[in-house]
Amino acid sequence: xxxxxxxxxxxxxxxxxxxxxxxxxxxxxxxxxxxxxxxxxxxxxxxxxxxxxxxxxxxxxxxxxxxxxxxxxxxxxxxxxxxxxxxxxxxxxxxxxxxxxxxxxxxxxxxxx
Amino acid sequence: xxxxxxxxxxxxxxxxxxxxxxxxxxxxxxxxxxxxxxxxxxxxxxxxxxxxxxxxxxxxxxxxxxxxxxxxxxxxxxxxxxxxxxxxxxxxxxxxxxxxxxxxxxxxxxxx
Lengths: 113, 112
Known about the structure:
The complex is a heterodimer. Chain A is mainly beta.
C-alpha cells in the first residue's frame, strides 16, 4: 500500500515565478491538507481539500491556491514567488473525520532565489 | 501568542533517561490531539494520539488535561534512536475539516 507521495522532491525557482506541487494521497483517504514548514518551525496549515473543494484555509495569501481531482490527488500552486516562500511543502492525507490522523508525504523542498 | 506552544529545547539526555515534553494550546474548542515525531529533513510521522484518560505505547506515555489545556509526552528509558523533534498537534472540532495546528517542536538529543 503506497503512502502519500509528492512530486517533485526538490525545486529551485526565482522570485516572481509560479510553481505547482503535486500530491497523491494514501489509498482510502479522501482529504488532503497542505502545510508549509519553514526551517526551525512547525508545519503551518495552508488549506485542506475534501470532495474537490477547499474546506478550510489558513493565514496564507491568495497567491497560494490549490485543486483536488476526482481521484483525490491534489495540487498546490504558488504565484509570484517570494524569497520567503522557500520552505518544505508537506502534503498530508486523512479520512474525513475530524479525529482522523494525518499521514504526511516526504515533502517538496522549494528554494526561491 | 501562538495557538500551540512548546518548549523548543533542546533537551540533551543520556541513554536510559526519562524525559518529559509539555505543550499548551489556546483554543478550547480543540477536540483531538497528537504527538508527531520528525527526523531531520524528513516528514512528520505520527507517534501517538492523546486521549483524555491518558495512554501508553511502550516507553511512551501521553496525557491530556483539558481543563488546563495542556498535553504532555513522557519517554522512559531513552534510546539513541529517540533523537528527533517532537511536534504537538491539535485539531479543531469541525467535522470533515479538522485543521491541524502544530507547535514548533521540541528537539531531543539522546547521547551515549
